[in-house]
Design a protein that fits this description.
By secondary structure, the protein is mainly α. It is built from four helices and two strands, in the order E-E-H-H-H-H. The protein has a two-stranded antiparallel ribbon.
Length: about 120
């Protein structure tokens, strides 16, 4: 559970949220700087707590980047697979044009594959 502090006005404040908010505005701030800035606002936190919140935010952003990267790789892989099918179809049609024995059903499938890929 997130720790809550009471400010001088008597309102309850989420310490972790206050740290994240400060980090959004000042991403390069050091833990001691953040502690000092929050102390001015009436929120008491330790440098260790700031470090933990800062590290967790970096892990979340790394996970997000990894998911985006994985999605682009899978899209690229499907594009490569489609290209592979296109090359196979083109090779089959080439062999048929050269006079090789190729079943008419396979020629038809290869032609339809190329039409699908080329749009």
């Amino acid at each position: 559970m997130a720790k809550k502090a009471t400010t001088a006005e008597g309102t309850s404040v989420n310490k972790s949220a206050a740290i994240r908010e400060y980090l959004e505005k000042n991403p390069e701030a050091k833990p001691k700087e953040i502690v000092a800035a929050l102390r001015v606002q009436g929120i008491t936190v330790s440098p260790q707590m700031v470090s933990v919140i800062k590290a967790k935010s970096k892990v979340k952003s790394a996970r997000t980047r990894a998911k985006v990267s994985a999605k682009s790789k899978s899209a690229s892989a499907s594009s490569d697979l489609q290209s592979s099918h296109g090359l196979d179809a083109a090779l089959l049609l080439y062999k048929a044009a050269q006079g090789a024995e190729v079943p008419s059903q396979r020629i038809r499938e290869a032609f339809l594959t190329l039409v699908e890929i080329l749009g």
